[in-house]
Amino acid sequence: MALLGEINLHLRMFLCSNPALKSPVRWLSAVAQPRPRASSEEEEPGASGPGPRPGSEEAVSQTFTNRNPRNLEQMALAVKDRGWATTWPHREFYHRLVFSRTQHHVTAEVFSASGGSSPVLSCSTREWAVKQELGSTHCVAACQAVGEVLARRCAQAGIMRMVYRAVPWTYRSDAVQSFRTAMKEGGVTLSEPRRKYVGT
Q1: pLDDT tens figures, 132-163
Q2: How far apart are CA 179 and CA 184, in angstroms?
Q3: For residue 71, is it within any domain?
């Protein structure tokens, strides 16, 4: 406390030397006043020290502002859009991973349920940084490289759980399996928790 008083004193002396800053000096002197201590009648008998007193600042606010927009999603409390039961791929997800392999390139994209049709994260062998390290842009090694790079980008973005439903007739292929293995080794879980229904 003595250090803060000393800093306040030096700051007031500095501001007083400049005539254009007279109003902030009054503001600083008003702020620097110490808080009045509670009288001895308000203190409980046997209570010693500067601990919190009941009722002083322990009141819980009636309103709550969620400053992390993904907080409910990470606790599996956010609403998932279910869509129709006949739609494929299913729309009940927070983040969905889409893996596609053509004759020339391999692409993996992560879509958000609230993001619309544009991907949140993506990786492809069309990118020069990935392409220059590969001998072929559509082989099994390319699928593994795309999985490793996308897993690193997901970790940097904080998206560690997502839904991945491969096309059934390509699920057992070596390319898809190497991609899934690379994503899992990168720390990404390819499933999401079931939504929790609290207070309904």
Answers
A1: 999 898 899 999 999 999 999 999 998 999 99
A2: 9
A3: no
Q: Are 151 and 186 in contact (CB under 8 A)?
A: yes
Asked if the structure places residue 84 within a domain, the reply is: yes
Domain count, the chain: 2
**Pair of tokens at residue 20:** 């254009």
pLDDT digits (tens, 9 = 90+) for 10-56: 666 666 666 555 544 444 444 445 555 555 545 555 555 566 566 65
Whether 101 is covered by a domain: the verdict is yes
What's the maximum distance between 2 C-alpha atoms anywhere in the chain?
84
**How much is the pTM?**
0.62
Collapse the DSSP code of 79 into the 3-class scheme (helix H, G, I; strand E, B; otherwise coil) and give the result: coil
Please indicate, yes or no, whether residues 103 and 170 belong to a single structural domain of this protein: yes
Cα gap 110→162, rounded to integer Å: 8
Give backbone dihedrals phi and psi of 199, rounded to 5 degrees, phi first: 75, 25
Q: How many other CB atoms sit within 10 Å of the CB of residue 80?
A: 17
Domain residues for 162?
A: 77-185
